[in-house]
Amino acid sequence: MVAQPDSDVLWARALTHAHNGSPALRGVSIGVREGEILAVSGPRGSGKTTLLRCLSGQFRPQEGEVWFNSTPVHTMAPLIRERLRRDRFGWIDPEPVLVPELTAWENAALPLMLRGAGRRAAKKAALEWLERLDIGAGARKRPHALLHSERQRVVVARALAGTPTVLFADEPTAPLHRAERAHVLRTLATAARSHGITVVLATHDADTAELADRTVTLLDGRQVNTIHLPHASEAEGRTACSLSV
Ligand SMILES: Nc1ncnc2c1ncn2[C@@H]1O[C@H](COP(=O)(O)OP(=O)(O)OP(=O)(O)O)[C@@H](O)[C@H]1O
C-alpha cells in the first residue's frame, strides 16, 4: 500500500469501477491538495460522475483505494462512510434536488441541522448564503414556487452553508443560463477559496474548468492529462502540462 502524500486532502489510486459490467473507470489515480479547486473534465460518459462518487464515498470502487486525510474511505463501514459524507463532504448534483415540503432557507440549513447546529444559527448561515447567491428574496418560498435556476442556487447555498472540507460539484451550473453560470461559479470559487474548501468539479464546459487551479481530463474512464493553470496572482503566462496516460 502506498502512503497518501501529506499535501493531499483526498487521494485515490488505481480506481476501477464498472456499472453492470460496463467499465466506467479504468485505473484512475488522483491527488487533490487542500484548498485546491480541481476540475475533472471529459466528454459525456467519460467517467466524471463515477469518479466523483467513488472519491466521495457514495460508490465503493471495485478496485483501488480512496483516502481522505490519511483515512481509508474504500474500506470504511457504510455507517462511518455516511457520517464522513454528512460531516465533511458537500455534494452538488446537476439537477436541483430539494425537499419539496421545506422552504428554500430550510433546505439550505438542512445539512447544518443534521450535524446538530441549532435552528437559529443554521437559519442565519443559510440566509447569508442565499443572499450571496442572489436568491435571498426566495428564502421563504418552497421549491415549486422557484424557477429551476433558482432551485439550483439553493442547492449551491446548501452545499456551501455546511462549509464542507471537500465539495464535490457534478456539473453544478448545468441548469443555469450563461450569465447566471458565471455568477454562481464565481461565488462558489470565491467562497471555496475564502473558507479553505477543497472543490472537485466535474465539467465538460471550458468556462467552468477555467476557474480551477488544475484540470484532470478523463476519456473512456482513463486519465489522459493534467493541466496546471496559474492563479491570477501568480506570474503571468506560467502554465504547466503533464501527461499521465
Ligand atoms: N447507473 C449506471 N448504469 C449503467 N451504466 C452507467 C451508470 N452510470 C454510468 N454508466 C456508464 O458509465 C460510463 C461513465 O458514466 P459517468 O456518468 O461516470 O460519465 P460522465 O463523464 O459523468 O458522463 P456525463 O457527462 O454524461 O454525466 C458511461 O458509459 C455511462 O453510460
TrEMBL record:
UniProt keyword terms in alphabetical order: ATP-binding, Nucleotide-binding
Pfam families: ABC_tran
Sequence ranges assigned to domain ABC transporter in this UniProt record: 10-245
Gene Ontology CC annotations of this record: plasma membrane
GO MF terms held by the record: ATP binding; ATP hydrolysis activity; transmembrane transporter activity
Keyword Nucleotide-binding: yes
Family, similarity comment: Belongs to the ABC transporter superfamily.
Name under which the protein is recorded: ABC transporter ATP-binding protein
Species assigned in the record: Streptomyces ruber
